[in-house]
Amino acid sequence: MLRASWVSTIGNAILSLMKLVIGFLTGSLAVISDGIDSATDVVVSIVMVFTARIVSRPPDLKYVYGYEKAEGIASKILSFVIFYAGIQMLISSVHATFWSVERPMPETLAIVVTIFSIFGKLALSFYQFRAGKRIASTMLIANAKNMRNDVLISCGVLVGLFFTFILRMPVLDAITGIIISLFILKTAISIFLDSNTELMDSINDTAVYDSVFEAVDATAGAKNPHRVRIRTTGGMYLISLDIEADGNCSLNEAHKIANQVEENICKCIENVYDIRIHVEPEGTVHSDEKFGIGRWK
Q: Which residue of 35, 43, 94, 283 has the fewest C-beta atoms within 10 A of its own C-beta?
């Protein structure tokens, strides 16, 4: 994760600096806004570098589950940074569209740097996505998706510049800046909402619960899975559940049943961080039970 974060930081820094310089030299608000978007990616990448160092720490007495949730906290912070950049760019673009008396035509160099940016972002996005999949990092995968959105943004800039030159209307450049700003704000809101999943101890794919039930069904001696609770940390599942077994079986037999359930769950579900199984005598009733999921719910 650390290496991928550094690659993202350096790549985005080069693209951002290039677009901002060319944007100011050519007078293109759309290219400037695209450069600001890439600058937010630099901030994202820098935070990822520090987050990668935190996540790599082993569990300790204070954080017995490890430091993987630092990714969720970092994502939440980044969403605010990106949102702020989007609002600033939106204000500038709206002002340039409705209150500026005259705007110069952008130069053709703006088109060249935008095309270069599209290919650069595609390469970075592909690299980040592969690295994220390999190590099951939600933050790297989210950053890869963000860069993929950046490719669409740069394509929008290219289209906006094309029509600006064809129609000889500089105001179209500022309007393109408004559209890009809205994309930036959408990305910020999306990252904010996605980070809630881990921080609120929930999961996106609730079908995982069905996989747990199927794993219990496939285990001889295991019955009635209930109080099933699944959450994520660092993109991996923490699973807790209760099962029932014959009340007359020995402790060794109950232990074997629980181990077999754990093995079957790992066969059905990828990226399992930890599993906790509590074995109860068959027919045990908890009238005040309110946490977790069972088949009766």
A: 283
pTM of this prediction? 0.66
As beta bridge partners, residue 197 has: none
Please give the torsion angle defined by the CA atoms of residues 184, 190, 191 and 192, in that order, rounded to the nearest 10 degrees.
110
The tokens of 171 are what?
Answer: 């105001």
Task: Output the CA–CA distances (angstroms, integers) from residue 112 to 29, 106, 222, 224, 290, in the order listed.
Answer: 15, 12, 64, 64, 60
For the chain, 297 residues long, give each residue's pLDDT as a single digit of tens.
667 767 777 887 888 888 888 878 777 766 777 787 778 778 777 877 788 788 878 888 988 888 888 878 887 887 887 788 778 778 877 876 776 555 555 567 777 888 888 888 888 888 878 877 777 666 677 677 777 777 777 777 777 777 767 767 766 767 777 887 788 788 788 888 888 887 888 888 888 999 999 999 999 999 999 999 999 887 789 999 999 999 999 999 999 999 999 999 999 998 898 999 999 998 887 767 677 887 654
How far, CA to CA in Å, does 123 sit from each of 17, 43, 118, 132, 250?
Answer: 18, 19, 9, 14, 58
Q: What's the token pair of residue 8?
A: 């993202």
Alpha carbon distance 107, 136 (integer Å): 43
Alpha-carbon span 82 to 36, nearest angstrom: 10
Give the Cα separation of 283 and 220 in Å (integer): 17
Q: Which two tokens stand for residue 57?
A: 């720490």
Query: Residue 98 CB: number of other CB atoms within 10 A?
Result: 10
Length in residues, the chain: 297
